[in-house]
Design brief:
This protein is α/β, with parallel strands linked by helices. The chain has helices at about 10-15, 20-35, 40-50, 55-70, 80-90, 95-105; strands at about 5-10, 35-40, 70-75, 110-115, 120-125, 125-130.
């Protein structure tokens, strides 16, 4: 398992459970290659899986185990937080998106796969945001 160049936002991980088979298949294809996520992604996944999807704790743990088996998990540290504050201010994005971006940058990733951020945007000349579900 290696972190590699790809970082995955929570929405990509959640699409593993999507009724939209095209998106579910694409998320599975990307995650099977491996990459990096952050502890924030794990926490957001749990929040949605338990509250909105009404998954049992056993089911949640099983999915988390599969995700953690193929992805490196980047911690959220004070360094992550401080950098996120600068990113949020500079790019005018939410602190939560900035935390994801900060974690990706600290993990030395080049691509952030996210359905919710601006496709094609480049952050700090290092990280390109890509929507993995666009057809273009």
């Amino acid at each position: 398992m290696s972190g590699g160049e790809d970082f995955f936002d929570t929405n990509v991980v959640l699409h593993l459970l999507s009724a939209d088979t095209t998106k579910a298949d694409r998320a599975e294809e990307l995650l099977a290659i491996g990459g990096t996520i952050s502890v924030q992604v794990l926490n957001e996944f749990v929040a949605v899986a338990s509250r909105k999807l009404r998954m049992s704790w056993t089911e949640i743990r099983e999915v988390l185990a599969q995700i953690r088996a193929v992805c490196v998990v980047e911690p959220v540290t004070i360094e992550t937080h401080d950098r996120a504050l600068r990113i949020a201010e500079r790019y005018g994005i939410s602190i939560y998106d900035a935390l994801i971006i900060s974690a990706a940058l600290l993990a030395n990733c080049n691509t952030l796969h996210s359905e919710d951020m601006q496709d094609g945007q480049v952050i700090e000349r290092q990280l390109t945001i890509r929507n993995p579900f666009t057809t273009s």
